[in-house]
């Protein structure tokens, strides 16, 4: 029981950290250009991952599969962070955290590893999330969606594709999560260095507050969150882990309002409620569908169809 509670606490902490990342990123982009924030986040993460790899008592062999997967996932992850960071710079942290939660219902639609179609109720939950996005993006009246909201919506689509790609490249293959993370952070640092080169003087002369936000984004929202998630999932069920990690948008709204001083209109509040309800509903439907499918396939494997033989 003590171990289970500790695991749950770690997963909730990961969700809280991810939920707080939107306000931290928004505040950092108020002081620095987006490209400088992205380069600093990746560079600090790469240094931290390198230090963790070097500090291991037992060195693990790097495989070509880890490097190839890390290179590809590094590009997709960098794309996600570009869209997220530019998006949160042009919308509220609460909106950003809510819209990105669409990843929960988009990922099963992009994941082709399953052998059976999702039930129609899942698409109903996804439709509820779409209505929620409409309320969030037009919370002050009917108007064209803001640039930040559109970018966060694009980030949710790309992030869902990234998650599906992670599963396709890693499931059933022995890969070290730290190696994968290290390669991805090196890829991101390499991609953003030339783009942020002209902003390096601004980065070097940033205030202590800005550097604190950058270090928090790199060490806590990137390195710690990924490794803690990997550790915690090994000690609990996938269903419980997804339920606890699914509290991320709730934390994003709570932190955006309590710390960032943001406000939700009546329509935006309704959109937030519908978004959280829709993502939880869709998550539960997909989880039940996946469990039922796995059980059915296991029973089919255990009881193969008998073919008649000739005498």
UniProtKB/TrEMBL annotation:
Superkingdom: Bacteria
SUPFAM superfamilies: Multidrug resistance efflux transporter EmrE
Domain EamA: residue ranges: 9-137, 148-280
Protein topology in the membrane: Multi-pass membrane protein
Compartments in which it is found: Cell membrane
Keywords assigned: Cell membrane, Membrane, Transmembrane, Transmembrane helix
Region (Disordered) residue spans: 291-311
PANTHER family xrefs: EAMA DOMAIN-CONTAINING PROTEIN (PTHR42920:SF5), OS03G0707200 PROTEIN-RELATED (PTHR42920)
Family (UniProt): Belongs to the EamA transporter family.
Protein name in the entry: DMT family transporter
Organism in which the protein naturally occurs: Streptomyces yunnanensis
């Amino acid at each position: 029981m003590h171990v289970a509670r500790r695991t749950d606490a770690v997963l909730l902490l990961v969700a809280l950290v991810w939920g707080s990342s939107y306000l931290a990123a928004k505040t950092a982009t108020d002081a620095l250009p987006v490209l400088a924030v992205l380069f600093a986040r990746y560079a600090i993460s790469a240094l931290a991952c390198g230090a963790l790899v070097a500090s291991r008592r037992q060195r693990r062999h790097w495989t070509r599969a880890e490097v190839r997967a890390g290179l590809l996932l590094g590009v997709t992850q960098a794309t996600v962070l570009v869209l997220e960071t530019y998006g949160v710079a042009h919308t509220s942290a609460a909106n950003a955290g809510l819209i990105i939660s669409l990843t929960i219902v988009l990922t099963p639609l992009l994941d082709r590893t399953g052998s059976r179609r999702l039930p129609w109720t899942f698409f109903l939950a996804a439709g509820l999330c779409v209505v929620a996005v409409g309320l969030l993006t037009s919370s002050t009246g009917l108007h064209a969606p803001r640039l930040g909201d559109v970018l966060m919506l694009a980030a949710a689509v790309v992030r869902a594709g990234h998650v599906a790609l992670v599963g396709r490249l890693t499931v059933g293959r022995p890969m070290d999560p730290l190696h994968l993370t290290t390669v991805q952070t090196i890829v991101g640092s390499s991609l953003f260095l030339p783009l942020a080169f002209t902003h390096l003087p601004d980065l070097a002369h940033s205030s202590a507050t800005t550097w604190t936000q950058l270090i928090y984004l790199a060490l806590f929202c990137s390195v710690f969150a990924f490794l803690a998630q990997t550790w915690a999932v090994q000690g609990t069920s996938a269903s419980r882990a997804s339920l606890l990690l699914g509290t991320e948008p709730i934390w994003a709204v709570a932190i955006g309002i309590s710390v960032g001083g943001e406000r939700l209109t009546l329509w935006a509040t309704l959109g937030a409620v519908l978004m959280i309800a829709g993502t939880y509903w869709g998550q539960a439907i997909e989880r039940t569908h996946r469990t039922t499918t796995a059980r059915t396939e296991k029973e089919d494997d255990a009881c193969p169809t008998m073919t008649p033989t000739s005498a």
